[in-house]
Amino acid sequence: MSKDVNIKEHNNGVVSKMAEKRFGCLQVLGLVAIVVIITAGVSILVFKTYFFPSEFKPVNLNFQEEKVLAEKFENLGSIHKSSKSGRFGSTSTIEPESYSEEGIKREIRFTERELNGLLA
């Protein structure tokens, strides 16, 4: 028996032809078309999302929310008062004191509505 690539002999002496698993031109063309369509769809979605976002809808804050926002800005801009009272009292000399931000909280948190209200 000759050794042919397409012929295989089993243990019981039966000879069978093995089918080769190859892709045809139409299958390759179909796979390429599917990949191109998926890539184009993802590219369009990413491009639209990042370069052309939806229109900004302004937010109008009600009185209560505006009051809370104004308080946040006042707290952020307030200067920490020294605990010494009468620093410029009867004495004419000014004593230097070291600058310290100890105990000062310089953090502010805005809600999404407050940020949108500021932008509007």
Description:
The protein has 120 residues and is mainly alpha-helical. The protein has three helices and two strands, in the order E-E-H-H-H. It has helices at residues 25-51, 63-77, 112-119, and strands at 7-9, 15-17. Strands 1-2 form a two-stranded antiparallel ribbon. Strand 1 (7-9) and strand 2 form a beta hairpin. The longest helix has 27 residues, at 25-51.
Straight-line distance between termini:
87 Å
**Regions with pLDDT < 50 over 5+ consecutive residues?**
79-88
Over all CA atoms, what is the radius of gyration? 39 Å
Structural class: mainly alpha
Report on the biggest sheet. 2 strands, antiparallel
Number of helices: 3
The dominant shape is elongated
**Sequence of secondary-structure elements:** EEHHH
Give the rounded overall mean pLDDT. Answer: 75
In terms of DSSP E residues, the strand content is: 5-15%
Count the beta strands.
2
Helix fraction, binned, reads: 40-55%
Placed side by side, the strands forming the largest sheet appear as: 1-2
Total number of distinct structural domains: 2
In short:
The protein contains 3 helices and 2 strands. It has 120 residues and is mainly alpha-helical.
List the helices and strands and how they pair.
Elements: E1 7-9, E2 15-17, H1 25-51, H2 63-77, H3 112-119
Antiparallel strand pairs: 1-2
Structural key phrases:
120 residues, mainly alpha, two-stranded antiparallel ribbon, 3 helices, 42% helix, 5% strand, elongated
